[in-house]
Amino acid sequence: MIPQPSWITVLIALPTLVPLLGAALTLLRGRSPTFQRAVSVSAIGVALIASAMMLYLTSVHGPFAVHVGGWGDRDDGGSPLGITLVVDRLAALMLVVSTTVLLCVVVYAIGQGIRDGTTEQPVSIFLPTYLILTAGVCNAFLAGDLFNLYVSFEVLLAASFVLLTLGASAERVRAGASYVMVSMVSSLIFLAGIAFAYAATGTLNLAEMAVRLDDVPDGTRNALYAVLLVAFGIKAAVFPLSTWLPDSYPTAPAPVTAVFAGLLTKVGVYAIIRAHSLLFPGGAMDTVLMVAGLLTMLVGIFGAIAQTDVKRLLSFTLVSHIGYMIFGIAVGSLESTSAAIYYVAHHILVQTTLFLVVGLIERQAGSSSLRRLGGLIASPLLAVLFLIPALNLGGIPPFSGFIGKVALLQSGAADGSVLSWILVAGGVITSLLTLYVMARIWTKGFWRARADAPEGDMASSTPSALVEEGTDVLLDEREDVGRMPVTMVLPTAAMVAVGLALTVWAGPIFEFTDSGAHGVLDRDVYIGTVLGPGGGR
């Protein structure tokens, strides 16, 4: 570590503050779409630049901490009062990947809005809400105390409630009601965990709590860990706490579904990583996590096999691949944690890309149902945009999905326990079945003639936008659905390229995730950064 310059304080706060300021400006100028678009892209662009700078600084100098408000250290030697923001290699990597995704998706959404936006479309509220979601996601990765993490979850969840129910169609409201109820239960459990943690340790600062939990009786520690795991497990969609996701995400507009699928569950995974390594090291719940990871992989992929709608199918694969991340966390070694971090970054990019492609498929073909799709190979660009991330998700070499899975499986084999070997076998089966469901989409949606589809003569009458205004009509009678706007294609292609970059630079990226995993597992680094020399011990 180096002496922390004063401008670091501003830099760390930028990914949260700039989107919030952008949201306020876009709300004030709700009747100026051009202004809203410019502010939104600029705000997320600034957040991405700040995140990239933090990625570089943490890779060279190590983690940094900021005590917002200038309260500083207490006279009794305890943790600083107020909000603590901490950025280490893991947080910086998550910020860069997340803001990259958020920027590409907002450009995609703007392109869709320019093409489909009418006076009936709720475009004026979409961008401010999206910026609030961005601020919540970024702040969650930077949160250095448990209550600030809770606030971050609530901010992004409040924004997600609005985005999920845009247009207020019956299907979206029904899915939104379920999503809201599950989220509220999760939040209440998290809030109870915060209360228990404060009662047991007298602090909510993560670094100081990590020190004080060492003196808490094992039974109390395990009970507290279990409460937090349930709260984070719901948010991360870990089986059996994942049944809400496939019913909620597919109903939203394409850009909303994409950013939800790519990011929101990963914030829960990030929280599990912090709890497992910083607050509760020692493997007290590793067996539970391993079993949950195995069931998440298998139940998710078996659910995907049964689906006939591409968005629901991808939602189940999203659940399934969360299991790989839980697998890496539960093994708990340096290699498995590094592989889990790499796989989180890979999955954010690939899963988001696939949902963006589904939005293009809906525009091109008027549906996302495999009972209606066919003949999409007539659009080579669309075929390539789907094929690359599909092969990546399926774990075909040399893509990043293959690299990440091999690293996870190697770490499981190195662990050597019976349960680890069962997880390795489950991971291989899940990967093969993922490739099967991707091939199913390809053969039915792209290779098969549309006329051979059971409902191939039907399509939505209008492109899918923020409000579902279309009705089912004969394919020959559909309105202007076939053209794909350049402003939707380019961000999708950019996401494909970023996903490929994880393959091309897998070596250097794995070196970074190795150092990030070391920083995660070595608690003294994090504690010393926040509490200073001696780490409050």
Architecture overview:
The chain has helices at about 5-30, 35-60, 90-115, 125-140, 145-165, 170-200, 205-215, 220-235, 245-250, 255-280, 285-305, 310-330, 335-365, 380-395, 400-415, 420-445, 485-505, 505-520, 525-530, and strands at about 65-70, 85, 460, 470-475. It is an all-alpha fold. The longest helix is centred in the middle third of the chain and has 32 residues, at about 170-200. Helices cover about 70% and strands about 5% of the residues. The two termini are about 20 Å apart. A two-stranded antiparallel ribbon has the order 1-2. A two-stranded antiparallel sheet has the order 3-4. α10 packs antiparallel against α13 and α14 (about 380-395) packs antiparallel against α16. It contains 19 helices and four strands.
Describe the structure using short key phrases.
single chain, 537 residues, mainly alpha, two-stranded antiparallel ribbon, two-stranded antiparallel sheet, 3% strand
